[in-house]
Amino acid sequence: MKKLLISFAVIGVFSSISYGITREDLEKDPILKGKMLAKRCAWCHDINRDLLAPSFNAIIERYKSLPDNQFKNMVIKAIKDGSKGKWTKWMSKHIRTKLGKPEDMYMPSQKPYYNEKEMKLIADWLLSLKKNKE
Ligand code: HEC
Q1: I need a surface site. Which of 2, 35, 48, 81 has the fewest CB within 10 A?
Q2: Are 54 and 94 in contact (CB under 8 A)?
Q3: Domain range holding 106?
Q4: How many domains does the chain have?
Q5: pLDDT at 15
Q6: Which residues pair with 77 in a beta bridge?
Q7: Per-residue pLDDT tens for 73-85?
Q8: What is the pLDDT of residues 47-73, one digit of tens each?
Q9: Distances, alpha carbon 73 to alpha carbons 25, 36, 62, 69, 122, in Å
Q10: Which residues line ligand 1 (CB under 6 A)?
């Protein structure tokens, strides 16, 4: 049952993040590249829906007053170090999942999967989502 729930979550999330894109498109468009690199994040984060972790929009909302550079540093730090405890209270109100209790949920470091340049591209993509809301 647990496995089944996980695959439903993943299918749901991917539908909002993945697209048919050629290698050429990616070279021309760094923001698109960042978005593609963020596919791994979609195991837990959706853009709009709070599934297993706060949606990227919820994160943008919380940090909307941060200047661009600090916002990007916050994202890069989360990718490198992971994150624990900052969203527990928020998640207990917004996240409904049978996979675990909000107080047990945290973000493991994603450092093994990305180099510095890739982390920056992901941060740039998230910053572009933030800018679209301003
Ligand atoms: C295994 C699930 C999981 C994956 C994969 C994941 N995250 Fe997270 N993320 C979380 C959870 C849970 C939180 C809330 C943690 C907390 O309470 O501090 C979080 C929090 C965050 C935050 C907020 C940090 C803060 O300081 O408030 C950012 C930014 C973030 N994630 C970005 C990403 C990006 C970018 C990726 C992909 C490179 C990613 N996450 C992959 C689960 C995940």
Answers
A1: 2
A2: yes
A3: 2-133
A4: 1
A5: 47
A6: none
A7: 999 999 999 999 9
A8: 999 989 999 999 999 999 999 999 999
A9: 26, 20, 15, 6, 11
A10: 38, 40-41, 43-45, 53-54, 59, 74-75, 78-79, 83-88, 105-108, 110, 122
Distance 82 CA to ligand 1 centre (A): 6
Burial 40-77 (b: 16+ CB within 10 A, else e): ebbebbbbebbbbbbbbbbbbeeeeeeeeeebbebbbe
State both tokens at 44: 């837990």
Give the span between the Cα atoms of 76 and 30, in whole angstroms: 16
| Token pair listed for 15 | 């539908």
**Element spanning 53, H or E:** none
Give the CATH number of the domain where residue 114 resides.
1.10.760.10
Atom in ligand 1 nearest the alpha carbon of residue 114:
38
Query: CB 37: neighbour CB atoms within 10 A?
Result: 20
